[in-house]
Structure formats: structure tokens, C-alpha cells
Amino acid sequence: MISEGSLLRAKEIYKRLIQEFPDNSRLSKLESELWDLNIKILFSPLKDEYSTVYEVQPGDTLSSIARKFKTTVGLIKKSNNLTSDIIRPGQRLKILTAKVSIIVDKSQNKLFLKINDEIFKAYPCSTGKFSSTPTGKFKIVNKLIDPVWFKAGAIVPPESPENILGTRWLGLDLKGYGIHGTTQPETIGKQVTQGCIRMYNKDVEELFDIVPVGTEVIIID
After folding, report:
1. Residue of 65, 96, 170, 196 marked active site
2. Beta-carbon neighbour count of residue 208 at 10 Å?
3. Which are the contacts of 184, defined by CB distance < 8 A and separation ≥ 6?
């Protein structure tokens, strides 16, 4: 079905298999395949239960549409195969309308992307050593590409090999804490950071396009 392009039907079958056979030895593989399929659908023009089709109005921009629907320009572009920011009146765009949120489970070193009440994808991550990653409810307040690292008064530019923040930064409303990439991929899955949540660059880049500023982040033990 996936090879034939029947992605929505394939998703329903994955979900049914997982629900009906929770003790299956291939459960983790099925979940991983479903999560990858979720992202494939999200980044395609296929309309699903989480999206709508919006007709571009005169004066619209990608930024204004993203603000209107509380989504991101990056996701609109990926979902509609857009290669530039230019849009025209009458153009029809797939737009995500569902609520996006994040849960970080320190005990598993996993970050869960949720859309509405569904776990949409799980990502491995690193959290703080000595339980230095705070627990509680936060929100994303800024997003940066190739972030500068402000290290103990020093300014480390993104191109420096000493900058460990990787390719993306999602800052939380707790000063100094955020979700970011890494130049040390071998540390993912461990409790090794100073308190931030660290991800593979490819994963944080994917997440960056999906979650808007204002997204809720819940961190649990």
C-alpha cells in the first residue's frame, strides 16, 4: 500500500495491528514504522483528520497563514512541496489544524511528539546528568537555525567545533534551557547534558519544522 501511495489506508492498518496485537514481538518495529509513516503523510499534500485545505486569499503570506492556524512556514512548505515563499490567491494549501505538543520522558530519554492526543512520533534524546533537566510544564518561546552558544560568558559561533548545540535550537520559557541538536551523536539516549534536551540533528530539524513557537512541552521523570 505504501509503495502504491495508499498512505492513509496503510496508517489505519498499522494502528489496528498495534491495538489488536499489543504483545506482538514486532510491536516496537510496527510503532517505529507507523511513526515514520505519520511524518511522511504530514510532509505530503495528503489531507487527513489533522488538516484542512485552505484557499489563499489576496494579501496572504505564508507567515500570516502560519500565524492564523498556529503552525509553521516550514511545515506549510513541506506539506505542499513548495520551493519558495511565493504563493498566489486561489492557490489551495494543506494546513495542519490540530494541536501540537511535546512530552519528554527523562526515565526513557525519549521525546514524544503529540498531535492532539495521539503520540505521533517518538525520538531518542539525551537529558541532564544528576537529574538537572527540570520537570514541569513549559512552552517553546524561540526557534533558531544554527544557534550561537553562549558558554559561561563566551560566544561560540555555530561554525565552531566547540559549539555543541547542533543545527537547531528550540528555547523554553526557562532561561538557558531548550531542545537542540548535537555535535556528539554518541551521547544520545544518555543522561549527560547540563539540563537541556539533546537530539540527533536530523531529528531536531524535523521537529523544528513541525512545532511553532508557543508549543507546550511537558517534562516528566
Report:
1. 196
2. 22
3. 164, 198
**72, 180, 182, 217: which is the annotated catalytic residue?**
180
End-to-end CA distance of the chain: 39
Q: Would residue 201 show up in a list of annotated catalytic residues for this protein?
A: no
Distances (CA, A) of 139 to 7, 128, 143, 212: 32, 18, 12, 10
Q: Which residues does residue 140 pair with via DSSP β-bridges, in sequence order?
A: 172
Quick check: is 81 catalytic? no
Supply the pTM of this predicted model: 0.94
pLDDT digits (tens, 9 = 90+) for 13-43: 999 999 999 888 899 999 999 999 999 999 9
Residue for cell digits 532561561? Answer: 175
CA distance 201 to 198: 9
pLDDT in tens, 197-221: 999 999 999 999 999 999 999 999 9
3-state secondary structure of 4: coil
Q: Which string of b and e fits 118-136 if b means at least 16 CB within 10 Å?
A: eebbbbebbbbeeeebeee
